[in-house]
Amino acid sequence: MKSIAISGSLRENVGKRDAKELRYQALVPAVLYGGATQTHFSVSAADLKPVVYTPVVHFIDLDIAGVKSQAIIKDIQFHPLTEQIIHVDFLLLDQAKPVTIEIPVRLTGTSPGVKVGGKLVQKLRKLRVKALPKDHLDYIDVSIEALEVGKSVKVAEISFPNVTILNTKEDTIVSVTTSRALRQAEQENRK
């Protein structure tokens, strides 16, 4: 999985007034969980953009006042009106402990059902997976080569070594439904 380096500086004061002051300086208050103690720090809002505003999942190489660690973003809070990032929670990665992450689904191939006029409907864009950090995938590739009209691919049909998919097995990832044009063509053929 890809990594992005982000550096931060420790916060001396923790509270609303301090957090507000950081946001005026284009910094985002953050907390690193998962270690022996919680680490309160701040990062540049510009450094977070390539990690937050992308469908790709990244590991983050944090450098907080010279202490290096690897983490993932566990939670992000946005301002309700401006959509600016106002707080970020990071989770420290332990190479021996499995971690749960939402991984994007990437459709591969061309569906024969779509070629004849069916409509491709992707119901799940991400899947929740649990694995050791070294086993995590960048994408979950789902082949639609065999999808005819009326057929679907369910979560139960997808598996990867050393990775557990946590979504319900009956959930549909992608399906090909009958389009309006295809229904009209079938009705005209019956007449």
UniProtKB/TrEMBL annotation:
<dbReference type="InterPro" id="IPR001021">
    <property type="entry name" value="Ribosomal_bL25_long"/>
</dbReference>
<dbReference type="InterPro" id="IPR029751">
    <property type="entry name" value="Ribosomal_L25_dom"/>
</dbReference>
<dbReference type="Pfam" id="PF14693">
    <property type="entry name" value="Ribosomal_TL5_C"/>
</dbReference>
<dbReference type="InterPro" id="IPR037121">
    <property type="entry name" value="Ribosomal_bL25_C"/>
</dbReference>
<feature type="domain" description="Large ribosomal subunit protein bL25 L25">
    <location>
        <begin position="7"/>
        <end position="90"/>
    </location>
</feature>
<dbReference type="InterPro" id="IPR020930">
    <property type="entry name" value="Ribosomal_uL5_bac-type"/>
</dbReference>
<dbReference type="InterPro" id="IPR020056">
    <property type="entry name" value="Rbsml_bL25/Gln-tRNA_synth_N"/>
</dbReference>
<comment type="similarity">
    <text>Belongs to the bacterial ribosomal protein bL25 family. CTC subfamily.</text>
</comment>
<protein>
    <recommendedName>
        <fullName>Large ribosomal subunit protein bL25</fullName>
    </recommendedName>
</protein>
<dbReference type="GO" id="GO:0005840">
    <property type="term" value="C:ribosome"/>
</dbReference>
<keyword id="KW-0699">rRNA-binding</keyword>
<feature type="domain" description="Large ribosomal subunit protein bL25 beta">
    <location>
        <begin position="99"/>
        <end position="179"/>
    </location>
</feature>
<keyword id="KW-0694">RNA-binding</keyword>
<dbReference type="Pfam" id="PF01386">
    <property type="entry name" value="Ribosomal_L25p"/>
</dbReference>
<keyword id="KW-0687">Ribonucleoprotein</keyword>
<dbReference type="InterPro" id="IPR020057">
    <property type="entry name" value="Ribosomal_bL25_b-dom"/>
</dbReference>
<comment type="function">
    <text>This is one of the proteins that binds to the 5S RNA in the ribosome where it forms part of the central protuberance.</text>
</comment>
<dbReference type="InterPro" id="IPR011035">
    <property type="entry name" value="Ribosomal_bL25/Gln-tRNA_synth"/>
</dbReference>
<comment type="subunit">
    <text>Part of the 50S ribosomal subunit; part of the 5S rRNA/L5/L18/L25 subcomplex. Contacts the 5S rRNA. Binds to the 5S rRNA independently of L5 and L18.</text>
</comment>
<keyword id="KW-0689">Ribosomal protein</keyword>
